[in-house]
Amino acid sequence: MGKQEMYDKLRDAIVNQDINGAGPLVQEALDAGFTPFEIINDGLSVGMKIIGDKFEAAEVYLPQIMMSAKAMKAAMEILDPILAEDETSESVGTCIKFVQEGDIHDIGHRLVATMLGANGFTVIDMGVDVPNDKVIEEVAAHKGEKLMLSGSALMTTSMLGQKDVMRLLEEEGLRDSVKVMFGGAPVTDSWIKEIGADATAENAAEAANVALELMKK
């Protein structure tokens, strides 16, 4: 089987919500010599993006998204232990990862958390629908560490909460102690600039690269 053919099969397992087939397919790809990064970046996350775009366009609904997420979870259950083994011993920094209050879309969020972990970050996953004050508390608790805050929002309404996060960081005197990165379908570079955050990224793989660059600054 050609590389692209395998990527397409991995992609389709997510798009078609193949909960039972996703895991065995990942194992098949690993046995064929594909790396976890290739499997995630070129296969699984492509499928997640397609499903995310379809959801935004109201072509699929929450039940389908949840089923795709379960297929993704089944795939990641095989990849997570391998990624954990590959982690460098020295952490490049601590990343507090959360999904904005009012939003329960955790697929992209989980993907980014996985990629950050695989790239040497210590990831604190706060989960979904996280109130801003809880986010600020978590940042304050880790002040002094090499710290990054990464928030996701898939809806325009929840995205607006990112502005409040930035305001609260300023008010609490925490802004200078943390790099801030936001992602999600509605998030743009101009929005990041407007609210005074540091960066955004198109996808999970890029998010890991951007995060690593931010930590060097």
Automatic annotation (TrEMBL):
Domain B12-binding: 92-217
Keyword Electron transport assigned: no
GO biological process, any: tetrahydrofolate metabolic process
Molecular function per GO: cobalamin binding; cobalt ion binding; methionine synthase activity
Domain of life: Archaea
Keywords annotated in UniProt: Cobalt, Metal-binding, Methanogenesis, Repeat
One GO location term (cellular component): cytosol
Pfam families: B12-binding, B12-binding_2
Statement: the UniProt record of this protein carries the keyword Manganese: no
Residue ranges occupied by any B12-binding N-terminal domain in the UniProt entry: 1-91
UniProt name for this protein: Monomethylamine corrinoid protein
Organism, scientific name: Methanohalophilus mahii (strain ATCC 35705 / DSM 5219 / SLP)
